Amino acid sequence: MKTSGPEDERSLISRVRSGDEQSLLCLHRRHTPQLRATILRLIAYDEDLAEDLIQTTWIQALEGLGSFRGESAFETWLIRIGTRVAFGHMRTRRRRCELGVRALPVAAKPPPLVELVAVEAAIGRLDTMERTVLVLHAIEGYRHAEIAGLLGIAEGTSRATLSRARRELRWNLSGERKPCRTTRKSAC
Amino acid sequence: MPNDEEVGLLSEAGLDDILGSLPRRFEVSGARRFRSERRLSRSARQRGLIGKPRAWPRWAVPIAAAVIFVAGYSAGSLGEPGGDLESAIAEARTTTDIERRALVQRAGTAYVRSLNAAVARGTQFDDLRSQVRTVTLAAARITGGPARGDVDECLVPIPRPARAQLVAF
Fold this sequence. Notes:
The complex is a heterodimer of chains A (188) and B (169).
Chain A: H1 6-17, H2 21-42, H3 47-63, H4 74-93, H5 113-124, H6 128-139, H7 144-151, H8 155-174
Helix pairs in contact in A: 1-2, 2-3, 2-4, 3-4, 6-8, 7-8
Chain B: H1 12-20, H2 30-46, H3 60-74, H4 83-94, H5 97-120, H6 128-143, H7 148-154, H8 160-168
Helix pairs in contact in B: 3-4, 3-5, 3-6, 5-6
């Protein structure tokens, strides 16, 4: 099914509301790649877990489709649900996944592979909160007020966390060993 | 204190460039996508979120209206007496299948049990407003929603025969 444009999207959503499976699968094909990218980054690239969280996100989206009024793009609304699902999972599990080569995502138009691997790996090594704020702000384009609302933190905390995450990431990508005065953990 | 570049730290602008170049979408293989779609279809079907809509029993609209009504009462959004119930009924009538499913799900089996009990006691469900009133009162008993008097204030006049039966209920 060839689809594009907001009119088409509204029509698809309307058909899904009335229980049309093909329209659901069409929406799923269209929006899951971005949802996957966001969730994978948030959970540090555990692909099996990402698949579970993507499923949970879609089911929650379907259950709440009646409340979607089209004030934002469907994808924005979906990714917001996905972010809540992923962050909720991380908050309960508090686990930190190590990035393995197996878990590296396949991009539709991959940038130079070495760079992609290095950057995604460096993001994966951030701690949960730093990674979440960085992904939401620097990659997904959320404002600090929105992040604060989503994660249940103060706006200032979001700003401070982003600043820490960026500095950590710059060190990681520089391949330099951090001086002890800048580390918060026993990395030195 | 040495600046960032002197200690070999990636610049802020350099970091922005790198983050900006990251892909926004991660595609997967066709086989993996197929598995994911099949899993979603199965889950959604099991939950009644997709698939051929079932015929709605006659109590679906009154229950949905009652839920909307109780929700409005709880949220303190009731306005003119009577008007809100009419709105709730209108809203329930226009809800899509999926929304109505969610409403009935929220209402839970307790509502249905109460309604069945009312039917068993001989309550006639000819008038939609009386149905809603019955279900709302039943819901109120169970959930601690609006009290009987509050419901009465908000209801439009109910036909006398139905009122007599409802008093019995």
